[in-house]
Amino acid sequence: MTRPTIIGLTGSIGMGKSTVAAMFAEAGIPVFDADAEVRAMQGPGGELVPAIEAAFPGSTGSDGVDRDRLGQQVFADKDALARLEAIVHPAVAARRAEFLAVHHDKPAVVFDIPLLFERGGNAAVDLVVVVSAPEAVQRARVLARPGMTPEKFEHIFGLQLHDSEKRTRADHVIDTGTTLEDTRAQVAALIAGLPPQAD
User: Fold this and answer.
1) Does 186 map to a domain?
2) 122/138 same-domain check
3) In a domain? residue 198
4) 124: DSSP letter
5) What distance in Å separates the CA atoms of residue 132 and residue 14, rounded to the nearest whole number?
6) Sign of torsion, CA 169 173 178 184?
7) What Å distances lie between residue 45 and 39, 61, 62, 65, 80, CA to CA?
8) Are residues 42 and 23 in the same domain?
9) Per-residue pLDDT averaged across 177-199, rounded?
10) pLDDT, tens digit, for every residue of 85-111?
11) What is the pTM of this model?
C-alpha cells in the first residue's frame, strides 16, 4: 500500500518556518503543525489540561494551561521537563497518526516540527526541509516579537541545534532571507521534484 511522502519541516526560531508551512498548505500539501496541536490540547477544555494540572499543580486555569506558570515549574528543571514531555509527546504522536490516516491517499504531507533534529524526529520522515535565513535577519525578526527580550532569545537560541548544523543535515534548504515570491518559488520547485508516493 502506498503512503504519502513525509516531509519533516523544521528551522530555528525566527527563520520563517510558519510562513513556509503556509506556502506548502496553499500548494495543497496537508500540514501537521505540532505546536498548534499542543496549544489546542493545552487550551480551554483541552485533553491534556487535567494531566498537566495533576503533575504541576497551579499551572492551569479556566483558559487551560497557563504557559508562564507552567514554565516557572519546568524551566531549568530537566526532570520536570521530562515529566511534561511524557504527557505531551504521546498525545501529539496519536494526533499525528490520525492526521496520516486521514491523508493516506495524498502524494505528500508536511510534519511541521520545530525541534525535529533535537528530538530525533528526523528518523521518522522521508525528507528533511530546513527553513533558514541569515543570523542578523533571524535576530531582527525574533526581537520584533511582543514580549521578546535579548535574554529570552539567547536562551531559546541555546536550546536549538545551530542553523549551520541543521542546514548540513537537511535534504533541502529553503532560504527565507529573500523575497516572499522567491521563497514561494523555492517551495514550488521542491514540490515539483518530490518522489512518487512511498510504499
Assistant:
1) yes
2) yes
3) no
4) G
5) 9
6) negative
7) 11, 10, 8, 10, 23
8) no
9) 88
10) 899 989 998 999 999 999 999 999 999
11) 0.85
Rounded distance between C-alpha atoms, residue 168 and residue 171, angstroms: 8
Strand runs labelled E in 11-161: 31-33, 60-61, 64-65, 108-112, 127-132
What's the rounded Cα separation, in Å, for the pair 121 and 34? 12
- The residue range of the domain holding 154 is 1-30+107-193
The three-state secondary structure class of 109 is strand
CA 43 to CA 177: how far, in whole Å? Answer: 33
Q: Which residues contact 149 (CB under 8 A, 6 or more apart)?
A: 143
Query: 47-86 pLDDT, tens per residue?
Result: 999 999 999 998 998 899 988 888 888 877 888 888 998 9
CA distance 35 to 13: 13
CATH assignment of the domain containing 17: 3.40.50.300
Residue 86 has which C-alpha cell?
511524557
Do 119 and 187 lie in a common domain?
A: yes
Q: Grid coordinates in use for 46?
A: 483541552
Name which of 154, 132, 159 is nearest 142 in CA terms.
154
